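Supplementary Note 3. Input sequence used for the single-chain structure prediction.
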Amino acid sequence: MRVLALLLLLPMISAAAQPQQDNFYDDRIDATAETPPKATSQTYSLPFIRVEGNRFVDEQGRTVVFRGVSIADPDRLERLGRWSKRIFEVLKNDWNANIVRIPVHPQAWRTRGEDAYLKLLDQAVEWANELGLYLIIDWHSIGNLRTELFQHPMYNTTKTETFRFWKTIAEHFRDNPIVAFYEVFNEPTHYNGTLGRMSWEEYKQIVEDIIYIIYAHDRTVIPLVGGFDWAYDLTYVRESPIAFPGIAYTAHPYPQKRQPPWEEKWEHDWGFVADTYPVFVTELGFMRADEPGAHVPVIGDETYGEAIINYMEKKGISWTAWVFDPVWSPPLIKNWDFEPTTQGRFFREKMRQLNPRN
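The predicted structure, written as discrete structure tokens, is reproduced below.
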């Protein structure tokens, strides 16, 4: 009888031991899967943005090119008494930006606490919605997410914290067209090996896990993925692109990343991606060597500025200049009266020329 009972039990054990099929997502996202819309009475001033081929398009299929700036971490601005709608008003009405990038440092996220930090981001969304600005939320860490070694304590995080951050953000801002982009990790680097090893395939797997989590909560947002060498090198995308639809790639091509003439090197290192996928240069900028805070790789002048703007315009690449702050470098403003620096005047003029006026 015991033998018979074991024989009867074996199929049940075997079935339980089999891996269960994930009917929601396979290794690649199910492009037909949809999540029900979040119940909300909120009305929005801007349409949803989506990826179509190598372009960003609005709900009518019209191509949208973004030109704006990165601000400082809202946690820092609030502690300085500078966090206000005025920043967004100046960027929209004077500088003619159409998007603002918001960097969230892991240390600030932990120290302030999730609920308190979300209130800051909610304020940014409210102000941006009133003014007709899109937003990027950027997990602003620099380092090796595989080894969990980072360039400075403010960037320290873990894979688990990063996954939880994006789960929280995607749940909170689900179906919100103002929050159009999530930059999943600011600048991946192993820092010449000092932060340990990380292959593209290893990093790609982590990024795809993040996108999997984001898409499980919100399919209306566009994840942004940076390459190695502090988000400069996208050459790996030629052979091994991210295995999800609806994403875009980022680059941070500061002037000293390569020596001039730049265009051929930009095309080889990251610009070629724009022939197939959307590319968003989420950091660029320059300053003179004798200005406070000058450091490699941001030392340059308007020669670089003209070259990078002309290149991006030719390729249809979106951008946000770094950084709308008088202390962080390279600064776009000299003070909290919003007096522009040399690069601030340059990028303000480009946004005034190139962005349509609403």
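The CA atoms of residues 282 and 320 lie 5 Å apart. DSSP finds eleven helices and 14 strands in the chain.
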